[in-house]
UniProtKB/TrEMBL annotation:
Protein name stated in the entry: peptide chain release factor N(5)-glutamine methyltransferase
Keywords annotated in UniProt: Methyltransferase, S-adenosyl-L-methionine, Transferase
Reactions this protein catalyses: L-glutaminyl-[peptide chain release factor] + S-adenosyl-L-methionine = N(5)-methyl-L-glutaminyl-[peptide chain release factor] + S-adenosyl-L-homocysteine + H(+)
Ranges of residues in domain Methyltransferase small: 110-187
UniProt keyword S-adenosyl-L-methionine present: yes
Molecular function GO labels: nucleic acid binding; peptide chain release factor N(5)-glutamine methyltransferase activity
InterPro entries: DNA_methylase_N6_adenine_CS (IPR002052), HemK-like (IPR004556), N5-glutamine_MTase (IPR050320), PrmC_N (IPR040758), RF_methyltr_PrmC (IPR019874), SAM-dependent_MTases_sf (IPR029063), Small_mtfrase_dom (IPR007848)
Underlying gene: prmC
The UniProt record lists the keyword Methyltransferase: yes
Top enzyme class: transferase
Record-level GO BP terms: methylation
Organism, as annotated: Tessaracoccus defluvii
Length: 277
């Protein structure tokens, strides 16, 4: 069995894959319905399973994201359903969620109303509701395809979901929200050619690109957060590492105080936090 994963890893390595070993183990485990750590317990593999692994390895070697092949993505403690049409959650966003959890945990039960803008698969809200009780959580997403995944991933968690534009969502919550969180699209429209092909070819454009300077959606996030938050409420939003000063400026212009840039796990400046006066 490990021989099958070994062969698959060799094929992925020859195709230039960045992580052939882990990818091969995940694909073989996916086909066999096991966790990667259980692969060593399997002696015999059917011809059908071998053929299914071969087909997935071929697709992975051609550049399809691993998460589209398995239909799953991992984010903090959550396993999310993903596929074509929805942004694959990234590990760099996990640090921003940690910041939000710390701030929400410091608030009493009944004062933990949180709104996620640009929710995609729902990874952020799934992690928030999965790791902290007493949340009154709401999330908005504009893409109908992504919204299908959002509904599926947050089913049964009591989250208020809206399919629509964040610009005019949740008017009924104006002035009452404790924390607004967003990982919006933030790539300048002209930078399409600078992105790796596995990103451009497989993440939806609406999840990536946002106007000429990449800041259009972040301007809306700042305006919507200023509308939704109660006095003293907090906002956090992810951004490109090259945009930290511009993002701080646009949150300050929207009326926020304590506007601070934070690093991701790779020590790149990747998310802003701010407080409404
Ligand atoms: C970078 S993805 C982030 C998804 C998810 N929050 C995550 O971190 O994995 C941005 C998401 O914002 C959505 N989006 C873009 N413009 C929007 C808008 N005006 N209103 C609501 N959602 C929007 C996209 O469809 C996409 O799902």
């Amino acid at each position: 069995m490990s021989e099958l994963a070994y062969e698959a890893a060799g094929r992925l390595a020859r195709s230039g894959s960045a992580s052939p070993g882990p990818d091969a183990r995940l694909l073989v485990a996916h086909v066999l319905g096991l966790r990667p750590g259980e692969l060593m317990l399997v002696d015999e593999v059917s011809d059908e399973a071998r053929a299914a692994v071969d087909a997935l390895v071929e697709r992975r070697a051609a550049g399809e994201p691993l998460q589209h092949l398995t239909g799953e993505a991992y984010f903090r403690r959550e396993t999310l359903a993903v596929g074509p049409g929805v942004f694959i959650p990234r590990p760099e966003t996990e640090v921003m969620v940690g910041w939000a959890l710390d701030r929400l945990a410091a608030r009493p039960d009944g004062e933990r109303r949180v709104v996620e803008l640009c929710a995609g698969s729902g990874a952020i809200t799934a992690a928030l509701t999965g790791e902290l009780g007493g949340l009154d959580a709401h999330a908005v997403e504009i893409s109908p395809e992504a919204f299908g995944y959002l509904e599926r991933n947050l089913a049964g968690r009591g989250v208020g979901l809206v399919l629509g534009d964040m610009g005019d969502a949740f008017g009924e919550l104006d002035g009452t929200v404790d924390l607004v969180i967003a990982n919006p699209p933030y790539v300048p429209a002209g930078h399409r050619n600078l992105l790796p092909s596995d990103v451009v070819d497989h993440d939806p454009g609406i999840a990536l690109f946002s106007g000429a300077d990449g800041l259009d959606a972040l301007r809306v996030v700042a305006a919507v957060a200023a509308r939704l938050l109660r006095p003293g409420g907090l906002v956090t939003a992810e951004h490109d590492e090259s945009h930290a000063p511009a993002v701080r400026a646009l949150f300050a212009e929207a009326g926020f105080l304590d506007v601070v840039t934070h690093d991701d796990l790779a020590r790149r400046p990747r998310f802003v936090t701010a407080r409404l006066p």
